[in-house]
Structure formats: C-alpha cells, structure tokens
Amino acid sequence: MKAELQFDFIVDKENSRLTVKREFAGKRQLVWDCHTKAEYLDRWFAPKPLKAKTKHMDFRPGGYWHYAMVMPDGQAFWSRVDYQEVNPIDGYKGLDGFSDETGEVNPTMPRSRWNVSFEDSKAGTLVTTVVQYSSPEDVQKVIDMGMEQGMASTLERLDELLLEIA
Questions:
Q1: Which residues belong to any copy of the Activator of Hsp90 ATPase homologue 1/2-like C-terminal domain (predicted)?
Q2: Rounded CA gap, 76 and 53, in Å?
Q3: What own/partner pairs with CB < 8 Å and gap ≥ 24 does 105-114 have?
Q4: Pairing of strands 125-132, 112-120
Q5: Does 64 map to a domain?
Q6: Which of 15, 19, 114, 162 is disulfide-compatible with 10, CB 3.0–4.6 A?
Q7: Which pTM does this prediction carry?
Q8: 58-63 — which CB contacts under 8 Å span 24+ positions?
C-alpha cells in the first residue's frame, strides 16, 4: 500500500459499527467495477494468501454474491452478500454473512449490513464502507477474527490489481 493513500479503520462499539475508509489510485468507474464484477472480485477480494472464488454473482437489488475465500490447502470459507440497493458508481448496500457452500447463511456468525460509497478524491477514488452489526459483541467477534488486518491485506490486493488493469 502506498503511504499517501488513506486507510482508516474506525471502531464504534457503542453503535455496533465499523467504518473503513480507503483511497485508491484509480478512477471511480474502475474501482466500482472492481467491487461489483466477479471477474475482478476473484482477483482481489481475500487477504493473502487466500484467493476469492465466485460461485454466483447477480449484482442488482435482490441479487446476491456467493463466494469463498480459499486457503492454499483448498479449505474454503464461504460467504454471501445479498444486495439491497445499487446506485451505479456512487454506492451500494447489502447484507453480508458467513455461509455454507450452498449459500445458506450461518446464523451463529455475525451478519452485517454494508453501506459502501464511492467518491472522487485527489488520489483517485475514496471508498467508505460502513459495516453495521447487531451488537457490540458481534463487532468484537469480527475484530478478534482479524477483520482489520484482513481488510488491510485485501485492499492492498486491490491496489495491485488497479496497477495491473488501469
């Protein structure tokens, strides 16, 4: 990650919320495409050394993305994002949760509501992701699972992809 690019990871346990702000050296349309198209998501949406693998993608309100983060040994961690609102190149909202290989959301793991916005910045594009959980305990659970480090590593992969495809 380039030092001049903004990365903020803000924990607000009182309101059961995480806010991630990350700047990217790329035009907003391209950064949007990287967040909304499976062929790009599969190239960056997992912390190293994991790889993302899309099973289903339907990016529209009422659609969903079902994917796995796959370890080098083949072990897969499945997730599902149900899209609720889409405002092209400005933002989207969705429900994110851990799932099984069939797409069934795991009720024992925290589920969150994501509000992702995209805006032009000096470096290119600022992406702000507000992740709302049901409780402060859920926030702590994902922090304990390594959410901040995982997000930092994942977003660095997007930096690398943008350099490659820009």
A1: 28-162
A2: 9
A3: 105/80, 110/134, 110/138, 110/139, 110/141, 110/142, 112/138, 112/142, 114/81
A4: antiparallel
A5: yes
A6: 19
A7: 0.94
A8: 58/83, 59/83, 59/86, 59/92, 60/86, 61/85, 61/86
CA 58 – CA 140 distance, rounded (Å): 31
Distance CA(165)–CA(132), nearest Å, equals 32
CATH of the domain at 124: 3.30.530.20
Spans in the chain with pLDDT lower than 70:
1-3
Place of tokens 């795991």: 106
The backbone torsions φ and ψ at residue 15, rounded to the nearest 5 degrees and listed phi first, read -105, 15
What total of structural domains would you count in the chain? Answer: 1
Backbone angles phi, psi at 41, to 5 degrees: -55, -40
Look up residue 5 and give its amino acid: L
